[in-house]
Amino acid sequence: MKKILTLILIIPLFIFSSCSDDDGTTQDPKPEMPPQSSMAPNFDNFEDDGGRIAEITNWTYAATSVGVYSTILYSNLVVPVTAFKVGLNQEATYESDTELWVWEYDVLVANKGTYNVRLTADVDGSDVDWTGYVSLDGSFVDFVWFEGESNLDADAGSWVLYESPETPSPWLSVSWSDDESTGVANSEFTIQKEGDYFGSSIAYEANANATYNRGVMIIDTNASNTIEVDWNSPSGEGRVKSEAYFQDSAYHCWDETLNDTDCPS
Asked: Which residues contact 57 (CB under 8 A, 6 or more apart)?
């Protein structure tokens, strides 16, 4: 009799334990969000200060070169880039029916309107597929404005950003990495839109341990030119190299006031 009672007590515990384990395993682990530098690197050091861009200086040439890509990200593709940046500060929920992690929020984009964003992460083992759905009341619903993939820890991945709901073709592709152990993050942006800059790219690096802790290498297929720019953030001092423009292979520097200066030996 005691054996029967013991068995009766054990069976419900076993069933409850099994159900609990199943419930836990049905929820995929929450992935880390890709870093901001993967889609929205910081080019603030090259913003026009109200007239310097009209002067011919080393900083001006660097700022003009970087400005082409800054315009693409923060003007032509301002909606998906802003949608992603805002998503970095949002909380995700897990949808058991779709088995997706979901970030859902509204984004106000100046001079364009308020967009609803639904960013999803589909986890498959150590791989994550990201999809950014964007909607605008009275205009379009769930347009996939950006999508990509990463690993679960978000230390490497890729993005594709599309032009617009009216022209849903790839504008920009991105491959990126972010190594917290070394403090180095890299992102390479390649223009996919047909036109003069098709195939041109800018490789961005942030290195927390370097004197020039930010850098880009620009490959301009239209002008058959390669431009290297390194700078310190936040001080602003930096250097630029372009054989096509300067007619030499040397770096040309500027100081913290953005004025031309001799480069350190």
From this structure: 254, 258, 259, 260
pLDDT tens digits along 38-70: 999 988 888 765 555 567 799 999 999 998 888
User: Rounded CA gap, 24 and 58, in Å?
Assistant: 58
Residues forming a β-bridge with 107: 115
What integer pLDDT is reported at residue 47 of this predicted model?
Answer: 77
pLDDT at 53: 59
- The top-scoring range by mean pLDDT among 3-12, 41-50, 158-167, 188-197 is 158-167
Displacement of CA 85 from its chain's centroid (Å): 8
Beta bridge partners of 252: 240
Return d(Cα 220, Cα 39) in angstroms, integer. 20
Q: What secondary structure letter does DSSP report for 101?
A: E
- Residues paired with 220 in a beta bridge: 225
